[in-house]
Specification:
Elements (H helix, E strand, L loop, with lengths): L1 E10 L2 E11 L4 E5 L6 H8 L7 E6 L5 E4 L12 H5 L4 H19 L3 H16 L5 H11 L16 H15 L3 E5 L7 H12 L4 E5 L3 H7 L2 E6 L2 E5 L3 H36 L6 H13 L26 E12 L2 E12 L3 E5 L6 H9 L5 E6 L5 E4 L13 H6 L7 H10 L16 H13 L5 E5 L7 H12 L4 E5 L3 H7 L2 E6 L2 E5 L3 H20 L15 H35 L7 H34 L1
Parallel strand pairs: 3-7, 3-8, 5-6, 6-7, 12-16, 12-17, 14-15, 15-16
Antiparallel strand pairs: 1-2, 1-4, 8-9, 10-11, 10-13, 17-18
Helix pairs in contact: 3-4, 5-6, 9-10, 18-19
């Protein structure tokens, strides 16, 4: 479908890619990985045609279409409702709908048979292209990625950048291009939405390339992993976990081959050195010299990863209770976040606060920090020294400071070399450390703010989405730091691998109350799935009351089959009625006596649209019940 052949791409004399190649097949699900700054986003822009390569070529099949979700879309604004923006995916069908509305308007003032004929053809085209179902499809995808039904008709302009990005993601998913390219999509999604997108992408008919630092997401979506390293594109035929194992195996094989070749070279060089002056050995010496010149050299294994280990210290230990919330309530107008809820954070607690966006996770974090006024009481424990990391902390950075000076002024008491090591862990090279804060990108500023938080000697950390702008290496370093951290913390995150490594308790907000699961994230997920299965069993399994005299009771699945058969029969009758009504309306629209009655034409058109929607919904229900019956 797309062939990338020996491409080279330079930035300021530095080769980002050098004779790199990759072939993308029609149904590939590719996880594109690599350290920040290696050129992942650049590669997507090269494929999209935004950047031109300095050498090599990119060829695409004629029918290849590309959809690209990237950070540039955050600036897109519109006064249209988000469902209308999402429906822009059906460009031709929406245009057909616009033409139908225009002709109906013209018919009010200027009736003609030509207009009626055009209207009929457009209506047929609209139906054939699935026009009656496009709004339902758009609503399904938008609700799948986290929007509520009442949100669907709100203007795009009213939403924050992250939510606008979700709308653009919905539009791309509905477009169904041959190749879907997503650059860090999980940064703007919560856990339920991530799981929905994972399932959608697994079943996506086209090819997908995803840039992500979410390991679990990559494991669940990718069937192929491509690493950007040293200007090359190295392919692994499996997901991220497969890549980790396969890379270690390849390194071991290459290292053994390298060492064996080096041993052979040393042996050959010793022979040449020993016998080069003897005429009787001249032929053998010359033969070995030529053999060395012809030898295909095995490259030494060079790690693209350099982890720096360090420990974050605490100034003093806190008391047993860190934070106590008693009968806390919080609301914004009619929107209730918390209601009469109580919770305690104790020394040694490593809490992950999870859940869907809009439930109030960040609000709760501010309440715990004491920066958000509430009803009820918040009590801070003895000797608690807290440090808070969140996106709004970027505003407290001193824009005229160089990065290194910003950390020096944090008052941690660390040496300059220790601070340099910390910045190195968060992707700042020696040269970068002298950049001024004001020239940094949003992601770079967030990494500076995170580094400042972690060197603060605090014994209680509050971290809001700390991994959003970190690559795998920096994320690993943060995990190591938090695992050995001697204080307490609460972390808001949707990165499942991250919270599985660092949390010993899980908090979530349910029915305006703080709920706690006293275990790791993996244990919580196991428990949650068991609870969900029990709910399904309760809903699915019907227990009819059986008279005692009945010897053989009807099994639950047989009862369910009978129920399903009845429901399916009802739906089939509905479909037949809707089809009949649809045909009648279409006949009415073609009658000559109705041509001059514009209002009646409008009413008939509206009625036809409603019937088509009902028909689509009923068919969807029928298919769902039929699949369930078949599974029984």
């Amino acid at each position: 479908m797309i062939s990338i052949s020996d491409i080279s791409y330079f930035i300021g004399g530095r080769a980002l890619y050098e004779e790199a190649s990759l072939f993308i097949k029609p149904k590939d699900k590719i996880g594109l990985i690599g350290l920040n700054g290696r050129g992942k986003s650049t590669l997507l822009k090269i494929i999209n045609g935004e950047y031109k390569v300095d050498a090599g070529s990119i060829s695409k099949s004629n029918d290849c279409t590309i959809g690209f979700l990237n950070q540039d879309l955050l600036s897109y604004q519109s006064d249209d409702a988000i469902v209308t923006v999402a429906m822009q995916a059906f460009k031709e069908t929406v245009e057909t709908q616009r033409q139908i509305e225009q002709i109906l308007h013209e018919l009010e003032n200027n009736y003609s048979e030509d207009l009626v004929n055009r209207l009929t053809k457009l209506q047929e085209k609209f139906e054939e292209s699935g026009g009656y179902a496009m709004q339902a499809k758009a609503e399904e995808v938008l609700e799948g990625i986290g929007f509520t039904t009442k949100d669907l008709h709100r203007p795009l302009r009213e939403f924050s950048g992250g939510w606008r990005m979700r709308v653009m993601l919905a539009k791309l998913l509905l477009e169904k291009p041959s190749l879907l390219m997503l650059d860090e999509p999980t940064n703007h999604l919560d856990l339920p939405s991530i799981e929905w997108v994972e399932n959608y992408l697994r079943n996506y008919e086209g090819a997908v390339i995803v840039v992500s630092h979410d390991r679990t997401f990559l494991d669940n979506v990718a069937t192929r992993t491509v690493e950007v390293t040293f200007g090359q594109l190295i392919s692994y035929e499996g997901n991220y976990s497969f890549y980790l194992k396969e890379k270690e195996l390849r390194k071991e094989i290459q290292n053994n081959a390298y060492e064996n070749q080096q041993a052979k070279i040393r042996q050959t060089e010793r022979f040449i050195e020993r016998f080069k002056a003897k005429a009787t050995k001249a032929r053998q010496v010359q033969s070995r010299v030529k053999a060395l010149e012809r030898m295909d050299m095995v490259e030494q294994v060079v790690d693209d990863v350099a982890a720096i280990n360090f420990r974050f210290k605490i100034k003093q230990e806190s008391g047993r209770q860190v934070i106590q919330l008693n009968n806390v309530s919080k609301a914004y107008g009619n929107l209730t976040i918390l209601k009469n809820t109580t919770a305690t954070i104790e020394r040694g607690d490593k809490i992950a606060l999870i859940g869907a966006n809009g439930k109030g996770k960040s609000t709760l974090l501010r309440i715990i920090a004491g920066t958000e006024p509430v009803e009820g009481t918040r009590t801070q424990g003895y000797n608690v020294i807290q440090a808070f990391y969140a996106q709004h902390q970027l505003e407290s950075l001193h824009v005229e400071n160089e990065i290194l000076d910003e950390l020096k002024q944090a008052g941690s008491g660390k040496t300059e070399q220790e601070l340099r090591n910390v910045l190195g862990c968060f992707l700042f090279s020696d040269e970068d450390q002298y950049k001024k804060i004001k020239v940094l990108s949003g992601g770079e500023k967030s990494r500076v703010a995170l580094a400042k938080t972690l060197i603060s000697d605090a014994n209680f950390l509050l971290l809001d989405e700390p991994t959003n702008h970190l690559d795998f290496i920096s994320e690993n370093i943060l995990i190591q730091a938090l695992q050995q951290y001697q204080g307490s913390y609460i972390v808001v995150s949707h990165n499942r691998h991250f919270i599985a490594q660092i949390a010993n308790k899980i908090w979530y907000i349910d029915n305006h109350e703080i709920k706690e699961y006293p275990g790791t994230y993996d244990e919580y997920e196991y428990w949650r799935k068991q609870q969900a299965e029990k709910i399904i069993e309760v809903k699915m399994v019907e227990k009819p009351k059986v008279a005692k005299k009945e010897i053989q009771p009807t099994p639950a699945n047989e009862a369910r089959k009978k129920t399903l058969a009845k429901e399916i029969k009802k739906l089939e009758e509905l479909v037949a009625n809707f089809e009949k009504e649809k045909n009648n309306l279409e006949v009415e629209l073609t009658k000559e006596e109705n041509y001059t009655q514009i209002e009646k034409v409008k009413e008939l058109q509206k009625a036809l649209t409603n019937i088509m929607l009902k028909l689509e919904e009923t068919n969807t229900q029928w298919f769902a019940l039929a699949e369930e019956l078949e599974s029984l």
